[in-house]
Every structure is written in C-alpha cells, then in structure tokens.
C-alpha cells in the first residue's frame, strides 16, 4: 500500500498520529505537504530533520500546520512535530532529556484528558547508555499518568527478538504499561537480488485499546515507511483563519467616485452635533461602499507549494508505486525505474518552482510591495499565522469568541492591575516645574485648535497609505483615497465641527484589537501576546490634523526638552545614542567615571492618567476649549478584540493614550517632558519611553551617591504621575577606562527600596553597550545578523536578476551597517575590518563571483562605498544637519567656526574649518563630534558650502567613490 494522493491510508474518524524519518526536511516540504493533505494527519512526528539555526520555521512551513522542532547541535539529526493549527498543544520542556534526541508535546483534545506525544530518534551508532537514558525517560513520562504515544526511529529491529537491545526496550515498555503496535517492516533496504526488511520505527502507547490498527506505509520521499495510528476521539472544529475583507472583484472606480460626487451632503452640513453628523455621514458612505465593494467573511488558505501541479503530483505517485514494486521484486530494473522517477521528481520540482517564482517576479517588477511579497515567500520570510487556540491557566480555549473575550479581559485587566497598586495622590502639583519650563522659554503663549480648509483635508485623504488593515469602520484607505476630492468637503466639516465644539465623536473612539504572539514558538497566551490596535480610518485623519497643530505649537515654541529625541525632526535613535556616548567619552577623557541607569517603564502608554495629562496641558497654555477636545479625545474610549472572524464584547478603557494613533506618542512625550527637570545631579536623555539617567564623578562612591539621590526623585515622580517603573528590567552600568576596571566597582543603586541590577553589557535602542564602550559585542552581533542576511539572500539568487539581487542584499545585509554607525564606528580597526569582510561576502553574493575577485572592483561595479567611507559619509551628514539645520540641538550648540567668533555658521565662515575640541586622551578623539569635525575639515570648501542635503550627500559620496576607485 502506498501513500495515495486521493485516499487516506488511515481511518478518517479520530486524530491521526504518525511518524516519518524524513532524512532531511529541507528539500522535502512538498512531499510532507502531500502526505499530510492526502491522509488527513493531525500530528506528524519527524526524525532526521537535518535542520539548524540557519533554517527558520518559515523555510519549512506547511500551510495549516504549526512546527515544533528540536535541532541537533551537530551534523544531521533533529526531531520535529507538524501539528494541525486547530489542535491545541504545548511543548513539555520538562520531559526533554538533554542527552537524548527527543521532543515532547502535550495534546489537548475535546472531552478527554491531555495526551502526551513524544518523538524520539536513536542514532544507529548510539551505545547502550543511550538506550538506558531512553528507558529512564520513559519511566519519567509514564509517571505523568497520561495517555502516551511515543513515536520514532529507534534503530532497534522489532522483528529480531533475540537482539539484546530489543529485549531491553521491550522489557522497559512492558514495565511502563506501553505496547509497541507497529508489527510490519518500516524500512526495506534493497540491493541486487537482496532484500532486508526491518521494523526499526516504532509507536509505543498505553492507549492501544482506543486506537485503530497501526499501519506502515511506504513513501517515495524516504527509505523509511510512514507509520501511524488513529486515536478514536472527536476532532476539534475549525482549522483555518477567518478574516473580514472587502471584495473588489466587480469594483468600478469611475462609477464609485461618480456616485460619491453625486451625494447631497446638506444633511451632514446642517447637523451641528459632531456625533450625529458623523453617524449621518457614515450611513451614507457605508451604503455606497457596501454596494461597490461588499464586506465578506473569508477563510484564508495559503497553498504551501503553489507550483505543485497535477503533473508533478502524478509523477510523485508513480515514484511511490515504483518503490513498492522494487521492494517486493528486488529486480534491478525495478530499482532503476524507482531511482529514475525519484530523480525526475527532484528535477521537476526545482524546475517548476523556478518557473513559478520567475513568472511572479516578472509580474511584480514594477510593484515594490508585490515584489517583496514574492521574495519573502522564496526566502521563507512569509508571515506566520497565530495559533487558533490559547492557553489560560492550563486550560485551552478553542472557541474564537471565547479567545477574543479572553484577550480583551487580559489586556484591560493588565492595566487595571498596575493601577490598583498605585496610591491615589491628590497632593501632587505640576504647576511649579511646568511653570519653570515655560518661564525659561520666556513664553506666555496659549494653544487653541484652528479650523482647516477643504484643501488641507483633501491632501491628507489623497496621501493615505495602501495595505493597512481596517478598523471597526471596515473602510479601506483605497476607498477614501480615490474619492479624496469629493469626500474632503464633508470630512472637513466633521473635523471643524469637532474642533469648534471640543467634542471628539464617539464612533471614532472604538479600537479593533488584533492579538499577535511575541514568541511564535511558545504557547499562545495573554503573557505571550502583544495587542495591535486598529483605529477607524477617518479618526486618523482627524488625529493627523490635531497632531500637526499640537506639534507645531510645542516645537516652534521650544517647549519640548532637548533631551527628548523622539517624534521630532532631525532626531532619531542615532542622535540620542550619540548624545549620551559622546558625553560619556568626554567625561572619561576628563578622568572621570560615568554611571548610567537604563530605566524601563511598564506599559507606559497605557498608564497615562488623563487628569494629570490635562493638568499638564493646561500648564503648557492649552485653552479651555482645546482642553475640552483633548479630554473628549481621551475619555470613554472602547475596544474589542477580533480573533479568527469573531469579536469580543466591548470594554471601556479608563487611562492611557490611544495605541495605533499618531497623536498618542506625542502626548506621551508631553506627559514626560518634565522628567529631565526633576533630577539635580544627573542628566536624563529620552527616546519615547526609553529613558537613561547618567552622571559622572571621580570615584564610584560619588557616582553612586549622586545617582541614588536622583533615583529617589525619579521614584517620587513615577508615583506622582501614576506610572510603573519595572525595576527588574531596569539596569545600571559603569563606564571607565579598560585599564582601571580590573574589578568592576559596585554602584549599589536602588529605587523605591528595590535594588537595581548592575551589568557589564546592556542593549539600548538596538545597540549593545559595554562597560568599556569598545563596541566589540555589538559588532559581533552585527556580523551574525549580516551572515544570516547573506544566507537568506542566497535562497533567491537563482530566481532574480542582479539588479533585484542588489536590492535584496542591501535590505537584508547592508541595512545593519546603517543602524547608528556614528556611534559604534569608534570601535577598533580590528572590529571594523570584520564588517568590511562581511560586506565583501555580500558583494560576492550579488555578483556571484569567487573569493579571488578584486574587492575594489566589486565595490565599483555595485557603486558601494566601503564600510570606512560609509561611516565618513554618515559623520559628515550629521554635521551638515548641525551646521545648516541646527539639528540636533545638542550638537549644533557645540559648533565653533575658526576665525568667525561665532557659535554658528556665518556666511563668511561656511567654507571655513570648525574648531576641534582639545583632547586630554584618545577618548575624546573617539567621540562622534570630534571625528565628524575631523572629516568635515578635510572636505573641499565647495562641498562644505552645499546647502541642499541631497546634493551634499551626492557630492561627498562621489568624492569617496573616486578615492575608492
């Protein structure tokens, strides 16, 4: 009997559990896909997967199944499970013996107790101790008092009862109450006129009475048979992802826009109530939208191997039948026929896969989004779907509506739990510190919202991006964008009505929450999830208008502290890291020691207290009407979780700024704007919710005292502002000269009575800091990422032309060189050379050339700068921003032009040199500021005077390329 592509080898009713020694899963996902689909196998154990860390789960993803794997640390080996999406399972790491190649999962089925299923692989060369360890593991598993299924390649022939290992394994199984239920050969080795049939793949179970007859079925993709058994029970319902999506099958844009243009909006214009006017508008719009692009419920089923057509399936079936015939007859001609068909399947699969992807790439060559979707599919970077079940305190929930309600309750209760532990503080006053901020700016300014015209609204509507998921309004951006001109008139009325009356419409306050797993390999739980908030599309238009006005007010009046680098023009994670590391190196140069604390806040955006935020906005000059609008915008917000086609019940949000909004992050920056002003001895530098406190002194004792004093102030500030500091994740570090740090000084820092952990390395904003600021650990991490990117890129090189290959490598490999090079480029030349070697490998990947190819020639052909030249370019660009754009502020304030007598660039000084600071040691020379000035002063005068950023970049790049060639 062979694996039939139309008929299952296993009983249909129940849960089928099977095993196959696949002998490398890397190139056989098509075969596994066909076996799973044609036999309705719910759980497939795989041994000899031959996977390692260079292969992601997406590389061997089977649609409709989740992969659980345990790779061998050495060559070959490896075990895995393919489990149907709707079967709740969790990995039992507590049952895994480190010295045994095994993996255990616990399966949760309707109306029966959880079942333990294990996959074991015993190598042929394993000694008797390995078998002893397996037997010990079986004893431990049987103590769990569960139904047990143990499948695997034990390499012990069950048809040889005189074998000592057979006796040992059978004796242990009998003692444990297990029965081996595979009685047919599972591997038939054939050579000329010789047949060797062995039963080395086994299934042990203590639930054999609840199972159908076990089978052993030959398959052409492996020299082992697939073995399996069906557990008689009720199968879980479901099995595919359900989404709500509009269909554009019969969409006619001209007719749709024409109908929008013909609408009489007088009822909307005449309504002076924001909520009522919006309801009228949405009733009219949705009626038209539903007519032209109706909303449909769809089951998402992605085909794992779309190139797997009928012809290839037939050849695969012929191969399987040829193998059976060869095993039975032992004829040389039959064996030759099997090998011929086996090789034909491999060649056909490669050819059809290449033709399929080349056709897809040609179709998408002018569409970047479609092109990258195809490239990601080739490289195995396609998005993983979440499991169709969740675990709550050991109980699995499979009902979509129940799951949606579980997540909604979890997300709301998580915030409420933080809030319940906070003491109500009615005595805290924010006037003094905020008044000080306002007085320092010499401003007595006020803020009020201004009305917007139809043209401004139309520009925002026309610029709405494609491909974004819709919120509770189920409006796609495409439907608004194509009719932007016609819709700008009523939407402008709704916006102005909201701003003039200080009321944010209720319909725009409801968020649609999509829960996604943080760790896709771990069980899907509330703790292992992150909520993605989708707001109504038109609410984002309203927010965009409000954001632009609030942003302009705060930044034009310089009310946002210069220590906040997020959400402001000319600033980034790179500038905040440059700000801090340059300061640290300057202090070390002055023979001082630097102590730093990386503060971590728990759910900071979700915990913003509305009353406190409104008090702060009032101090910053917001008028009563603008405060009324902000209060309406923040209050009475609601959310519903959407999971697999079902919505949860609605819940009210009592605090926090809206997630998924553009206005929310700005409001968070305003809320925390006073944090740098409450410390006396230290500096606080922020990027959104990442805050770092640091100071310097001559001795560790002095640093500790200064930091502890300011940490007390921060602890009080956190309580007064009803935020939550995560002390467990907050860390401290000390920075000093390598020669001085023979033993690391202890800072002994604490906040609110809780000790802070001191570390030698920490990751901050994507960059790994070490106590010596050597950047060695960070660069080692970059090398690993670049190597993984090169390996990923090579997967698609045979399908794409060189121009696209260059894009792929730049996006997956060279992108890591663009992450804060200004900061880590002060590393040693030895470490920087490692990056150049990695870039050389990337160039060879694109050009498909040998190791002997000249490096300079490769870079010239690709128009790539060397790593050293890229660093020089980035350093000159940040200095150009400081000279001409006065950004970032901390850098521009330090500039002194030689001979100008000014701290800024006069017209006469633009072509001159910038004064270098005087270093005491090489530490100051390692600052980004010093290195940038050194390079800037070597540029030609004509280059320094270029006041257009893009022209300046082209000019400097050309100079560097000429030097390389």
UniProtKB/TrEMBL annotation:
Superkingdom classification of source: Eukaryota
Residue ranges of domain Reverse transcriptase in the record: 497-769
Gene3D superfamilies linked to this entry: Endonuclease/exonuclease/phosphatase
GO MF terms, alphabetically ordered: catalytic activity
PROSITE patterns: RT_POL
InterPro entries: DNA/RNA_pol_sf (IPR043502), Endo/exonu/phosph_ase_sf (IPR036691), Endo/exonuclease/phosphatase (IPR005135), RT_dom (IPR000477)
Name the record gives this protein: Reverse transcriptase domain-containing protein
Organism: Cyprinus carpio (Common carp)
């Amino acid at each position: 009997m062979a694996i039939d592509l139309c008929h299952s080898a296993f009983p249909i009713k129940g849960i089928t559990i099977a095993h196959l020694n696949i002998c490398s899963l890397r190139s056989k996902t098509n075969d596994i896909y066909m076996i799973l689909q044609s036999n309705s196998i719910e759980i497939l154990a795989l041994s000899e997967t031959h996977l390692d860390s260079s292969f992601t789960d997406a590389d061997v993803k089977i649609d409709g199944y989740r992969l659980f794997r345990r790779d061998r640390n050495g060559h070959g080996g490896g075990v895995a499970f393919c489990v149907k999406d709707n079967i709740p399972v969790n990995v039992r790491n507590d049952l895994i013996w480190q010295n045994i190649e095994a993996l255990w999962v616990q399966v949760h089925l309707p109306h029966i107790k959880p079942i333990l299923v294990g996959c074991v692989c015993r190598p042929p060369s394993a000694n008797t101790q390995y078998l002893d360890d397996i037997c010990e593991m079986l004893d431990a598993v049987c103590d769990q008092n569960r139904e047990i299924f143990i499948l695997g390649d034990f390499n012990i022939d069950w048809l040889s009862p005189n074998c000592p290992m057979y006796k040992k394994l059978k004796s242990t199984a009998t003692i444990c109450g297990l029965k081996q239920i595979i009685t047919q050969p599972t591997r038939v080795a054939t050579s000329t006129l010789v047949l060797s049939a062995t039963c080395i793949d086994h299934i042990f179970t203590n639930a054999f009475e609840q199972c159908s007859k076990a089978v052993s079925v030959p398959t052409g993709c492996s020299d082992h048979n697939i073995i399996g058994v069906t557990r008689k029970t009720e199968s879980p319902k479901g099995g595919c992802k359900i989404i709500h999506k509009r269909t554009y099958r019969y969409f006619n844009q001209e007719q749709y826009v024409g109908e929008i243009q013909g609408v009489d909006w007088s009822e909307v214009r005449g309504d002076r109530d924001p909520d009522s006017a919006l309801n009228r508008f949405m009733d009219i719009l949705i009626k038209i939208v539903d007519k032209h692009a109706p909303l449909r419920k769809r089951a998402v089923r992605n085909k794992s191997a779309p190139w797997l057509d009928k012809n290839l399936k037939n050849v695969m079936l012929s191969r399987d039948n040829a193998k059976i015939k060869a095993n039975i007859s032992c004829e040389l001609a039959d064996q030759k026929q099997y090998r011929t068909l086996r090789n034909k399947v491999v060649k056909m699969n490669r050819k059809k896969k290449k033709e399929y992807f080349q056709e897809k790439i040609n179709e998408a060559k002018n569409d970047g989004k479609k092109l990258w979707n195809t490239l990601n599919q080739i490289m195995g970077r396609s998005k993983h779907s979440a499991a169709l079940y969740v675990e709550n305190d050991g109980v699995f929930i499979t009902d979509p509506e129940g799951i949606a309600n579980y997540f909604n309750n979890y997300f709301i209760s998580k915030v409420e739990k933080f809030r319940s532990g906070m003491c109500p503080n009615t005595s805290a006053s924010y006037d003094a510190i905020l008044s000080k901020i306002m007085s320092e700016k010499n401003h007595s300014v006020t803020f009020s919202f201004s009305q917007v015209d139809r043209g401004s609204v139309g520009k925002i509507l026309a610029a709405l991006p494609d491909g974004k998921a819709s919120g509770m309004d189920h409006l796609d951006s495409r439907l608004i964008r194509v009719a932007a001109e016609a819709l700008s008139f009523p939407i402008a009325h709704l916006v102005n009505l909201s701003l003039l009356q200080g009321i944010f419409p209720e319909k725009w306050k409801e968020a649609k929450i999509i829960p996604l797993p943080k760790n896709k390999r771990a069980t899907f739980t509330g703790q292992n999830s992150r909520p993605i908030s989708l707001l109504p599309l038109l609410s984002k238009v309203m927010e965009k208008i409000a954001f632009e006005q609030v942003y302009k007010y705060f930044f034009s009046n310089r009310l946002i502290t210069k220590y906040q680098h997020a959400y402001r023009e000319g600033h980034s994670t790179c500038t905040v890291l440059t700000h801090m590391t340059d300061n640290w190196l300057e202090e070390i140069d002055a023979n001082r020691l630097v102590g730093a604390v990386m503060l971590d806040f728990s759910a900071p955006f979700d915990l913003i207290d509305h009353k406190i935020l409104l008090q702060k906005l009032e101090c910053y000059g917001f008028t009563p009407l603008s405060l009324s609008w902000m209060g309406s915008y923040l209050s009475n917000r609601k959310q519903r979780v959407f999971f697999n086609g079902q919505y949860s019940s609605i819940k009210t949000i009592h605090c926090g700024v809206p997630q998924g909004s553009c206005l929310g992050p700005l409001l968070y920056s305003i809320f925390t704007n006073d944090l740098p002003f409450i410390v006396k001895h230290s500096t606080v530098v922020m990027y959104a919710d990442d805050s770092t406190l640091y100071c310097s002194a001559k001795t560790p004792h002095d640093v500790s005292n200064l930091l502890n004093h300011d940490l007390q102030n921060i602890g009080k500030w956190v309580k007064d502002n009803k935020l939550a500091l995560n002390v467990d994740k907050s860390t401290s570090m000390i920075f000093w000269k390598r020669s001085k740090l023979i033993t690391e000084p202890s800072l002994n820092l604490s906040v609110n009575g809780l000790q802070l952990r001191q570390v030698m390395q920490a990751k901050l904003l994507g960059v790994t800091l070490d106590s010596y600021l050597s950047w060695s650990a960070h660069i080692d991490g970059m090398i690993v990422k670049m190597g993984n990117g090169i390996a990923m890129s090579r997967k698609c090189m045979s399908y794409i032309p060189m121009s696209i290959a260059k894009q792929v490598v730049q996006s997956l490999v060279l992108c890591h060189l663009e992450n804060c090079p200004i900061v880590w480029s002060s590393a040693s030349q030895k470490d920087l050379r490692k990056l150049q070697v990695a870039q050389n490998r990337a160039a060879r990947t694109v050009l498909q050339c040998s190791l002997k190819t000249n490096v300079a020639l490769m870079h010239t052909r690709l128009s790539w700068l060397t790593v050293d030249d890229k660093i020089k370019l980035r350093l000159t660009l940040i200095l150009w921003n400081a000279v001409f754009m006065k950004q970032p502020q901390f850098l521009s304030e330090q500039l002194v032009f030689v001979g100008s007598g000014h701290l800024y660039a006069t017209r006469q000084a633009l072509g001159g040199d910038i004064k270098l600071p005087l270093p005491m040691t090489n530490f100051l020379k390692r600052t980004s500021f010093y290195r940038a000035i050194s390079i800037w002063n070597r540029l030609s005068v004509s280059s320094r005077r270029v006041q257009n950023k893009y022209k300046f970049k082209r000019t400097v790049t050309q100079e560097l390329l000429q030097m390389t060639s």
